[in-house]
Amino acid sequence: MSHILIQGGRVIDPAAGTDGVRDVRLRDGVIVEVGENLQPNGATMVGAKGLVVAPGFVDIHVHLREPGQEGKETVASGTRAAALGGVTSVACMPNTIPALDSAAMIQYVLHKAATEGVVRVYPLGCISQERKGEVMADLAALKEAGAVAFTDDGNAVMNALLARRAMINCRTLGVPYIEHAEDEHLIDGGVMHEGRVSLRLGLAGRSAIAEDVIVGRDVMLADETGAHFHVAHISSSRSVEIVRQGRARGVRVTAEVTPHHLALTDEAVGEFDTQMKVNPPVRDDAHRLALIAGLKDGTIDAIATDHAPHGPLDKDVEFNQAASGMIGLETLLPLCLAALVRPGHLTLPGVIRLITVAPARLLNLPGGSLAPGAPADVTVFDELANWTVEAKTLASKSKNTPFLGKTMTGRVVHTFVGGRQVVREGGLT
Ligand SMILES: [Zn+2]
């Protein structure tokens, strides 16, 4: 089996409180030891001088689009995009076609992952049958098949009785209930954040209150049921405050935020850039700063990309008609560095914690640390290297990112999954 020694890098393992020059030994798929000046003992050497060595990143909000929309993304292409982004574990969303609402569909994705994927894939199951928000799916059967949490992501569960019953089930099963928190009525046909920019562009606004109402409802339901309620892609300042107050009262509520909500505002919609159309929308700077404050005080637990591939047919159209979502796996690291580390909001170990051990704990996934015995999932990156986002070098089948042509700082150099090198010198092996 494999035996690799990653030598002389700045090892940052927030789970262990490690931040210093160390060597990391990977053997037979697990981390064996982290220490100074380790002996080769016949290992394959990987030099990491001047680079950061971290646990493989864990992204708990990814749309792999398979089955049903393989033209946009597949398990094969999406996991390669993940690897290039330093992401060694993805939780994939169940709003596929058909939706992941049965044990057979969960098994299908896991089979694809095992045969065609290059990183670990953890499917999420639907809360409702066909993701219609009417009849609950068989959550126990889905969990038995391998679903790690439940969500109707893409839409909120609008029926509060269904949400309540699903939370009771999730509590019993010991898994999180995850909500795409946007009230479909309060959205009111909005296509971007409701504010000065939507007024100027004459586009229908999507008010933050649409998110806040569902987050508030679900915090109350989680309080009453004892379930773990997790807010997907939180985007509004009032929602952050509701989560903060809920946690202070002991409610089991957690939240994730996307890099694009941290890095961008509605100003970036500019002249109707459909690549900037996402749900929930990126908002104004007051909301953005509230999200950063939520990360700083621990109200928001983790960063997740909401990697959402769409093709030209969905994006090269009028803004009102365009699909919502942007890809994010391959720009996760540089956006976090730009939005959080370089402005001084968080330290580099602080950010690494938010994309490794913190999300892994949220969904009870293995990985996220370099502890001996942990899976040998390791990401090696250059914090200072510049690179340009180009359609031809992105592994994702879809190229829907507002960052095409932009220069990013922070580049993944090597990615290891279970001790197998899947990215070498910035390219897939
Ligand atoms: Zn969503």
What does this structure look like?
By secondary structure, this protein is α/β, with parallel strands linked by helices. The protein folds into 2 domains: 3-53 and 375-389 and 401-428, Urease, subunit C, domain 1 (Roll), CATH 2.30.40.10; 56-362, Alpha-Beta Barrel (TIM Barrel), CATH 3.20.20.140. 30% of the residues lie in helices and 23% in strands. The protein is built from 14 helices and 19 strands. It has helices spanning 75-84, 103-116, 139-145, 160-173, 184-187, 196-201, 209-225, 237-248, 259-263, 285-296, 312-315, 332-341, 348-354, 357-362, and strands spanning 3-13, 18-27, 30-35, 44-47, 52-55, 57-62, 87-92, 120-123, 150-151, 177-179, 192-193, 205-206, 229-231, 253-257, 302-303, 378-388, 407-417, 420-424, 427-428. The strands form 4 sheets. Strands 1, 2, 3, 4, 5, 16, 17, 18 and 19 form a 9-stranded mixed sheet that branches. It has a 5-stranded parallel sheet with strand order 9-10-13-14-15. The chain has a 3-stranded parallel sheet with strand order 6-7-8. Helix 2 (103-116) packs parallel to helix 3 and helix 7 runs parallel beside helix 8 (237-248). Zinc ion (ZN) binds next to loops.
